[in-house]
Amino acid sequence: MTNSSTQKSKTLLLVQYAILTALVIVLQLLSNVLSFGAVQFSLSLIPLVIGAFLVGPFCSAYLGFVLGIVNLISSFQNPVLTYLFNSSPVLYVLTCVGKTVLAGLAAGWIYRALREKNEWVAVLLASAAAPIVNTGTFFVMMAAFFQKAIAESCGLDPSANVIVFVITAFITFNFFIELGLNVILAPAFKAILKAVRSQRKHSARMISITKSRRGTAGFFTVRMETDSKNWRMIYGSGR
């Protein structure tokens, strides 16, 4: 690969990272607006899945980190989540950032492992893995470390089952909405991936043809110059 091709590949990669990062931030801010009570229409996991398809697990994990930071900042608008942060800041930050990073890694690893066998299956499972891992990690952290803080912040009765409350109040609707959106949009993800790959193959083919034509033109030029010299030598010796 030439230096020019390497530079173009690096530039394309940076552009993809920049666009997907902006998309994560915009969609998460939009999700904060598209909420009705406890129900939130979150689209912010979609760029993680697209990053997993286009670039790989490292990209989707990076996008998960960005999403986690945005989630962390926006969560301070919620008094219950602010109370959880005050009860254990380190664990709360790890929960916010860790769940989305793991979601991105899961989507990237699943797609990479299955794409050669069946790309449709890889797309669907990777799309579903992101919300499942994201919500699953959140639930485990809440159940393991924040039960007391949740009960205090929400004014629950001491005899109440905090785990059931977490499932019904924090998870149920949001999880199924995220899962449904990701799985429904999986064909669109695949179409994007197919279009990008087709464009890359077309560009590579055009570069190859251009180089081939240049090489052929160079060959004929040398051949013509050689033949001309031979002709002059033959013509001169005949005289």
TL;DR of this structure?
By secondary structure, the protein is mainly alpha-helical. It is built from nine helices and two strands; from the N terminus they run αββαααααααα. It has a single domain, classed as Arp2/3 complex 21 kDa subunit ARPC3, CATH 1.10.1760.20.
Q: How would you sum up this structure, described in words?
A:
The chain is mainly α. The protein has one domain (3-184): Arp2/3 complex 21 kDa subunit ARPC3. 86% of the residues lie in helices and 2% in strands. The protein contains 9 helices and 2 strands. The chain has helices at residues 3-33, 46-54, 57-75, 79-87, 89-114, 119-145, 147-154, 162-184, 186-238; strands spanning 35-36, 39-40. Strands 1-2 form a two-stranded antiparallel ribbon. A hairpin with a 2-residue loop joins strand 1 (35-36) and strand 2. Helix 1 packs antiparallel against helix 2.
Shape: elongated
Number of strands: 2
CATH architecture: Orthogonal Bundle
Strand line-up of the largest beta sheet: 1-2
- Which regions have little confidence, pLDDT < 50, spanning 5+ residues? 219-239
What proportion of the residues is helical, as a percent range? over 70%
Average the pLDDT over all residues and give the rounded result.
82
Largest sheet: 2 strands, antiparallel
Count up the helices: 9
Ends apart, CA distance between termini: 52 Å
- Class derived from helix and strand content: mainly alpha
Estimated share of beta-strand residues: under 5%
**Rg calculated over all Cα atoms:** 28 Å
- Can you tell me the CATH topology? Arp2/3 complex 21 kDa subunit ARPC3
User: H/E order of the elements?
Assistant: HEEHHHHHHHH
Question: Which CATH class applies here?
Answer: Mainly Alpha
How many structurally independent domains?
1
